[in-house]
Here is the input.
Amino acid sequence: MADLGLKRIETGVDELIQFLKGKKPVDMNVVAKQLKMSSSAIQKWVDFLVEEKIMGVDYKFTKPYIYLIDKKDELEEKVGRELGNYKKKFENAAKKKAVPENKTAYLWKEHLVEKVEEKQEFFYQQAKLRNLENIDSLWEEYKQRVMGK
Here is the structure.
């Protein structure tokens, strides 16, 4: 492809996010100095980004420390909680039916495999829409995470 000399335009918010990537919480005033921006501008952006759950703020005494929220970890935690709740409902239903615990564990795994396999076609469709590569390995990774392996 020919280089048309086009450059990517970045905003101050882009610079802020890029600066914070991979860092632990950073004093907001230090960030403003590093990015050569006013503290009030940084504060406005942070307020918005916190509201959108992209960024978080911790206060140490009266100093605000800002950081990026890791969406991947947050999503995995949410999925884990939902799966845990689903498993508890499954186990409670099995108890009501007087299914032995060892059989319940086996039935849970079988049920989980069945439900995961039902999602495979949708997973592949969505991966293709997003032009992802190595879809087979992504699917295997997803299955292993869900199955707790």
About this structure: The CA atoms of residues 95 and 101 lie 8 Å apart. The chain has seven helices and three strands. Strands lie at 26-27, 55-60, 63-68.
